[in-house]
TrEMBL record:
Keywords, in A-Z order: DNA-binding, Transcription, Transcription regulation
Domain of life according to the entry: Bacteria
GO cellular component: cytosol
Lineage: Bacteria, Bacillati, Bacillota, Clostridia, Eubacteriales
Entry-linked SUPFAM superfamilies: Periplasmic binding protein-like II (SSF53850), Winged helix' DNA-binding domain (SSF46785)
Family under the similarity heading: Belongs to the LysR transcriptional regulatory family.
Gene3D superfamilies: 3.40.190.290, Winged helix-like DNA-binding domain superfamily/Winged helix DNA-binding domain
Annotated transmembrane regions: none
Record-level Gene Ontology MF annotations: DNA binding; DNA-binding transcription factor activity
Name of the protein: LysR family transcriptional regulator
InterPro entries cross-referenced by the UniProt entry: HTH-type_LysR_regulators (IPR050950), LysR_HTH_N (IPR000847), LysR_subst-bd (IPR005119), WH-like_DNA-bd_sf (IPR036388), WH_DNA-bd_sf (IPR036390)
């Protein structure tokens, strides 16, 4: 089977529907139907079964899918390595990044990247960090950028920046009276905020994981918790007095739109590391390394 036919199989498995897979692949539906009939005949057993309107891989189909994804990944990495050896400036880079980071990082990075590598196609996947890890391990992205909580042994990381985490409150909030000045920053104990509503990101997001773990370690229970996946919304709610939000210090500078607020570093809170991540042992072409460098500069 050729690599493009493996792409057919992967698309059917991901879309769960031949029509949608055909649209994604820019081939006709009859072509894809005949392909699936042929490959199942060659395999000697069904590779998909129907679950309502969806096509779901059988156990044999799951094994076939895993191998197809692995071979496609190897093929892409070989193409990238050979292009480097030929000094060709072409290829495709699939980048995973959380939505808020995407909103301010990519406008600063992509124009410069295109000047360096005008023939490299960029594809962006915006998801929370947990889903991005799954996509990277499945070969759906080549590079991820996010805050790191726990390292995955299947991945390699490069540290791009290290940030303190801050509690965000409306300007003049009484909790600020217990803040302690240390150097050029003010610090606040998490326990001094227990009477507040905590505006937390979900547990699939790195900042949410960070805060839930910090609350557990410091044995802090807030009065109420409001979870939102939207970091900008959490910031705006805190600035307008609804509760206390927790954000990386560098991110605060990006979200500040002139409305007054107070921010305090959390006493005893570990730093939050922003990293580039890729599959362990995978080949990073020169253009991917340039993308990492540009993200670090931002």
């Amino acid at each position: 089977m050729e690599l493009h036919e493996m792409e057919y199989f992967v698309a059917i498995a991901r879309e769960g529907n031949i029509t949608r897979a055909a649209e994604k692949l820019y081939v006709s539906q009859p072509t894809l139907t005949k392909y699936l009939q042929r490959v199942e005949k060659e395999a000697g057993l069904p590779l998909f079964q129907r679950a309502g309107r969806r096509l779901v891989p059988t156990y044999a189909g799951e094994r076939y899918l895993a191998r197809a994804e692995e071979l496609l990944r190897i093929g892409r990495e070989l193409d990238a390595e050979l292009a480097d050896l030929r000094q060709e400036d072409s290829g495709r880079l699939r980048v995973g990044i959380p939505p808020v980071r995407c909103s301010y990082s990519l406008p600063a990075v992509l124009p410069g990247f295109r000047r360096l590598h005008p023939n490299v196609e960029i594809r962006i996947l915006e998801e929370d960090s947990e889903r991005l890890d799954a996509a990277l391990c499945a070969g759906e992205t080549d590079l991820n950028f996010y805050n790191l909580s726990a390292q995955d042994p299947r991945l390699e990381y490069q540290l791009l920046s290290r940030d303190a985490v801050c509690a965000v409150l409306p300007a003049g909030h009484p909790a600020g009276k217990s803040a302690v000045q240390r150097g050029d920053s003010r610090e606040l104990d998490l326990s001094s905020l227990t009477g507040e509503t905590f505006l937390l990101q979900k547990r699939t997001q790195r900042q949410g994981q960070y805060l839930y773990e910090l609350m557990r370690r410091q044995k802090v229970t807030p009065a109420r918790v409001l979870e939102t996946s939207n970091i900008r919304a959490a910031f705006a709610l805190a600035v307008n007095g609804y509760g206390v939000a927790f954000l990386a210090e560098g991110l605060l500078r990006r979200l500040d739109q002139g409305q007054p607020f107070d921010a305090y570093r959390l006493t005893g809170g570990p730093s939050m590391d922003f990293v580039a991540a890729w599959r362990k042992g995978s080949y990073l072409p020169a253009f991917a390394q340039d993308f990492i460098r540009l993200m670090q500069e931002v």
